[in-house]
Amino acid sequence: ELKDIVFIIQSQSNSFHSMRSEDLKRDILQQAADLGKELPVVLLIHQMDRHEGAWTILPLLRDFSVTYGKNSSWIFFCEEDTRIRVVKLLETLGRYDCSKEWFLGKALYDEESTIIHHYAFAENPTVFKFPDFAAGWALSIPLVNKLAKKLKSEPLKSDFTIDLKHEIALYIWQKGEGPHLTPVPEFCTDDVSSQRADHCATTFSNFLPLCGEPVKKEDVFVAVKTCQKFHGDRIPVVKQTWEKEAALIEYYSDYADISIPTIDLGIPNTDRGHCGKTFAILERFLNNSSARTPWLVIVDDDTLISISRLRKLLSCYDPQEPVFLGERYGYGLGTGGYSYITGGGGMVFSRVAVQKLLTSKCRCYSMDAPDDMVLGMCFSGLGIPITHSPLFHQARPMDYPKDYLSHQIPVSFHKHWNIDPVKVYFTWLAPNTEESLKGKKVGYNREDL
């Protein structure tokens, strides 16, 4: 029965995202009403956020078990852009015996072991399957109850959350004591309008959001963090690839080199962390750049980014709100902790967010503290939410499953390690590659990249 399914939308509190989640909730309830069925429970994760870590799901399972553990059969999770055909979903879940432990989803796997999964299953990374959240994924109630019991006796470790879908699958699998992910062919990430979508219970509708006109070039200020030792090899890549897309760009270094030109902020380079440099960039943006530039993006000198796609994406956000946007990681979220935007994929700030941050007393605890984590801590303390976009990437295209990238028009990648960064840019990020990315499954081979 439909009322036996609890729907959980992996929503966010930023106004653009919460609106999309509310739309999806309305759509699910409308479909249920049209079927003449008793309405199911539909919950938005950001609304049950009693603590910062709700988006990591595991901290919520004990509550789910207490509230739904007796009268429900399934908990079905999805993203705000997942589209659900309720009748087909009911029929699909009906094939599985809900008195048993099931972990259902669209299976992703690593083609080669990757840094973002701590090189797990290095012998044969393809053996371990984890769910593509965009297609929706489901846990049977007996499995939820079992996990809740485990969480009660062994609280979550205070650790990093880097790729949640992989980490949840690892937690459920319990080194072989728990179930593997069961792939469900009806959980899809095809576009709603594709021919293949006919057999699907779920589809995915959002490759790159656009809400009206893209933000003007002059409304995005780009700050590139560099240092003298990388002026010769990394900066030329930026100049050959995405620099010309940016109307306002400055390179910040520990050495003023007029040929680039770089600006010496008077902050000595540190081997790691760069907190001092990043806060100096934020101060400069607020005090020196034209008071009207609503958006700031801070990137590393080995970040590859599409400014034109970023401008489309930013059309969906209100620069009058404090926005802090990028790829979200977490630290210590099982026990409190905070979320942060990982720096390598690019960190995007509305001017209002920078103002609020610098008005507060929150600063680096040392010059070489990790800047992205300190920013996460500061914004968390200010009650300003981190906004996640999966289109920003902390690693290289080859570090992500092909099927996962196939429903994205990416905004950024990071690192030049063992790749030709210019080629990666022109394959994945250059203007005019949108159509080829959207139209076809994205294929690339290792030799190329």
UniProtKB/TrEMBL annotation:
Pfam families membership: Fringe (PF02434)
Cited InterPro entries = Fringe-like_glycosylTrfase
Where is the Fringe-like glycosyltransferase domain positioned along the sequence?
A: 67-151, 214-424
Transferase: is it a keyword of this entry? yes
Predominant location: membrane
Task: Tell me which UniProt keywords the record has, alphabetically.
Answer: Glycosyltransferase, Membrane, Signal-anchor, Transferase, Transmembrane, Transmembrane helix
Q: Where in the cell is it found?
A: Endomembrane system; Membrane
Please give, as recorded in its UniProt entry, the membrane topology of this protein: Single-pass membrane protein; Single-pass type II membrane protein
One GO term describing the cellular component: membrane
**Record-level Gene Ontology MF annotations:** glycosyltransferase activity
Family per record: Belongs to the glycosyltransferase 31 family.
Q: What is this protein called?
A: Beta-1,3-glucosyltransferase
The organism's taxonomy opens as: Eukaryota, Metazoa, Chordata, Craniata, Vertebrata
